[in-house]
């Protein structure tokens, strides 16, 4: 994670992430500097990982205004809208960066080492991606509920169970027991990225089908949801070699949330 454009007197090999920090009540890094370290050519291109990082923070009730501070400034004679990023904000952006970029991969390794130094149990990009997909599922289910109601669904529990049975070939209670999860727990919180994505696709595709077919019949809507789930089940099997119910259980997202909140405090208090 090196860059020499703002420090021409030094070689790129002599500069590190820490060399680009600033102090003004807090320790921060300019997004316009951090984007170069992450291999992004422009702030516009860097907007995507910044926005994803901010969305992840909002999903776990971490205040974005404390970590992503928008500021107007002059860089190379140009007026730009920039961000003052805390160390935690930089971590979250790195976890949401394009992993095909070697600079992003290096940044993720760097922050993993920082987390280890202060005993943070962070699992990196995978868990952040899970959080974001879980949030999309929450929003998707709200939208699907509205569309299902407009399609004549009265018993939403039956409608949802049909989708689960299509995807998992069993009901939600048996599925939860099979995966060794307590009945009081939310199954989504233990799903890996692939399984969460399969459920998100089930939700989105079912809603689209209900709208396209202009359905206003509960039984027909239930059949559609079951068929969509069954089709996605085949896709998961073909691409992973496993049925959805056999995909591995992962760390509870509630524990991920707690650790990220702890990281917000400890990373931002960490010295060089």
TrEMBL record:
Residues 24-108 form the Bro-N domain. InterPro entries: BRO_N_domain. It comes from the Bacteria. Pfam families: Bro-N. This is Bro-N domain-containing protein.
């Amino acid at each position: 994670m090196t860059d020499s454009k703002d420090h021409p007197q030094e070689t790129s090999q002599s500069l590190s992430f820490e060399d680009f920090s600033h102090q003004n009540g807090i320790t921060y890094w300019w997004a316009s500097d951090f984007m170069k370290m992450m291999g992004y050519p422009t702030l516009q291109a860097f907007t995507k990982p910044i926005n994803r990082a901010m969305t992840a923070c909002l999903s776990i009730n971490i205040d974005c205004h404390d970590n992503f501070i928008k500021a107007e400034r002059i860089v190379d004679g140009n007026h730009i809208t920039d961000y003052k990023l805390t160390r935690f904000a930089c971590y979250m952006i790195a976890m949401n960066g394009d992993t095909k970029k070697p600079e992003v991969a290096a940044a993720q390794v760097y922050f993993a080492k920082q987390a280890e130094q202060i005993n943070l149990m962070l699992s990196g990009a995978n868990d952040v991606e899970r959080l974001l997909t879980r949030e999309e599922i929450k929003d998707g289910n709200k939208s699907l509920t509205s569309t299902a109601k407009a399609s004549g669904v009265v018993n939403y529990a039956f409608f949802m169970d049909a989708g689960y049975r299509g995807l998992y070939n069993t009901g939600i209670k048996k599925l939860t027991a099979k995966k060794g999860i307590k009945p009081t727990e939310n199954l989504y919180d233990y799903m890996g990225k692939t399984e969460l994505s399969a459920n998100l696709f089930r939700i989105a595709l079912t809603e689209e089908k209900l709208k396209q077919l202009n359905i206003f019949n509960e039984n027909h809507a239930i059949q559609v949801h079951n068929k969509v789930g069954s089709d996605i089940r085949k896709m998961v099997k073909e691409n992973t070699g496993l049925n959805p119910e056999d995909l591995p259980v992962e760390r509870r997202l509630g524990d991920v949330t707690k650790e990220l909140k702890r990281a917000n405090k400890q990373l931002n208090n960490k010295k060089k």
